[in-house]
Request: fold
Amino acid sequence: MSVGRIIESEACVAEGLAWLVAHEPRFGEALSVAREVPLRRRPDGFGALVDAIVSQQVSVASARAIRGRLQDAGLDCAPAIAAAEDVALRACGLSRPKMRYLRALAAAGLDFEALRALPDPAVIAELVAVPGVGRWTAEVYAMLALGRADIFAPGDLALQEAARGIFGLAARPSEAALRAMADGWSPWRGVAARLMWAYYAQIRQREGIA
Reply:
């Protein structure tokens, strides 16, 4: 099984958006609301997974603040986190479960370079084997750090809310329901996610939600 298409540039996003709009007109309406759809690529590796774990169940602003405190404290690599005492990690804003997850990640010895060559299902399987790395975390890493064009994260609440608005649903779809919906957006599910995040950000601003 091959790795598949990698999103490397704004041109890749534009290609995916053109395909999505041609296959699902409501994505065209969402694009008119979103206006811009960012590339959202980030470097892969240990730091990207730390970001994903820190971001679990907290706001973007809170996650950014915690990550900044970790960097300021020099706790941005596996050896430093493995050696850190609870008090140092707690001072950065980490909960006890997230301390445990980051230590498990530091001890996992993931071969991040090898992950780049694995097909999508194998990437997800490798990542979810690490305690604290659930499917959402693995999918976000594969989508944004590895640039996998056909990965989607239906457990993401913002994507669920975006789907509710874009498709006029009575309620936020479940993870399983959104995963099934997203099957029709292959091979550009990763671009669909980017569009939906951008759409949701605009809707939040319009509604005055911080």
About this structure: The chain has 13 helices and no strands. The two ends are 43 Å apart (CA to CA).
